[in-house]
Write a structure and sequence with these properties.
Layout (H helix, E strand, L loop, with lengths): L1 E5 L10 H8 L7 E6 H7 L3 E3 L3 H10 L3 E4 L4 E5 L2 E4 L11 E3 L4 H16 L4 E10 L6 E9 L4 E3 L15 E3 H13 L8 E5 L24 H6 L8
Parallel strand pairs: 2-8
Antiparallel strand pairs: 1-12, 2-12, 3-7, 4-5, 5-6, 8-9, 10-11
Helix pairs in contact: 1-4
């Protein structure tokens, strides 16, 4: 798998994102995945509001999440079936604005449709990345807050391990793995690399994306007891 992060101009709110991408990435081959920072996607969709106060931000966090728990460092929230900080609302590199996550699956599909035509390719994947934090691990990684054009989960259940024993529960999270690999090159500060081109990725391309395939049922999730203790997930009666 080959990854190339792309340095660009500073993206402006309301700017045409497909045109912006095509200007800095004029051509890709078939079977390419393009990673795009969620921040430029939000700016493309004008999902920003001027920051006025902590109270304003906290109100927005609660409005844009299905569950929210205030902690000493940030709000721990659940949004679109994902655990994230502050419902994805960001102030970094925002020039006095609060940047809110749009519908990133719809945005990824729109980007895929337009760029497939511009680049004249059929198999094109789009993954929209955002910073994430793993429990008890220092530093940020990235997750896929939206994607299109490829299967986000690889199901290995029933396939043999190296000793011939069938795997019982193994699902490979393709979308988040791609997002994290790309974010390592895209950066988190002043790098100005909101795009990353991925070739030879071990993905299955598809023309229809199942936006529910990454969502895992709470009753089977390893972290559910912890989330229940924090009152982010309700206990089953």
């Amino acid at each position: 798998m080959n990854l190339t992060a792309v340095r660009t101009d500073v993206f402006k709110p309301g700017e045409d994102l497909p045109g912006f991408v095509a200007r800095f990435v004029p051509h890709v081959d078939e079977n390419t995945v393009l990673a795009v920072s969620s921040k430029v996607v939000a700016l493309w969709k004008n999902n920003t509001v001027p920051y006025t106060s902590i109270a304003q931000k906290e109100t927005l966090i609660k409005q844009h999440s299905t569950a929210a728990l205030k902690t000493p460092l940030a709000w721990l929230t659940i949004k679109d079936g994902m655990v994230m900080t502050n419902a994805g609302i960001d102030q970094s590199n925002a020039n006095g604005q609060l940047v809110l996550l749009p519908d990133c699956y719809a945005a990824a599909e729109e980007l895929r449709t337009v760029l497939s035509r511009v680049w004249q390719v059929q198999n094109l994947g789009i993954v929209i990345t955002d910073s994430m934090i793993l429990p008890l691990r220092a530093g940020v990684i990235a997750g896929a807050v939206g994607y299109a054009g490829f299967k986000g989960v690889k199901d290995l259940r029933g396939t043999p391990d190296i000793f011939g024993q069938p795997l019982q529960t193994t699902l490979v999270n393709v979308a988040d793995s791609l997002a994290t690999a790309c974010a390592l090159l895209m950066g988190e500060a002043n790098e100005q690399r909101p795009l990353c081109v991925v070739t030879n990725a071990p993905v299955t391309f598809t023309q229809k994306t199942d936006r529910a395939e990454l969502k895992y049922p709470a009753q089977n999730d390893l972290y559910t007891p912890l989330l229940q203790a924090a009152k982010l997930v309700k206990k089953e009666k």
